Amino acid sequence: xxxxxxxxGVVLSDKMDKTVVVGVDRIFQHSKYKKYIxxxxxxxxxxxxxxxxxxxxxxxxxxRPISKEKRFVVVRKIKEGVRAEEKEITTNDSATxxx
Length: 99
Description:
The chain has one helix spanning 84-97, and strands spanning 6-13, 19-29, 36-46, 57-62, 70-79. It has a 5-stranded mixed barrel. Helix content is 14%, strand content 46%. It starts with 5 loop residues before the first strand and ends with a helix. The protein is built from 1 helix and 5 strands; from the N terminus they run βββββα. A hairpin with a 6-residue loop joins strand 2 (19-29) and strand 3 (36-46). It is mainly β.
């Protein structure tokens, strides 16, 4: 029996309907130079309720092919990321108070 793949990654894009792009980091040692290298692999994952946003940390699991490029499903949201709107509001507030 084949073991299903499970990854934890960060949502990079949520512009598509019921689909998110998840970036999964992988750190490995170069075989010759012994330097540690970080690589990011992007996976398209099915998000049925459109509840994931950019910056959220999610767990994805391999499943049957849903479309041409979607082979993963979002199982759960581990941690919510900071939204761009929230960052903008806090920077605007601090800018007005400094003058």
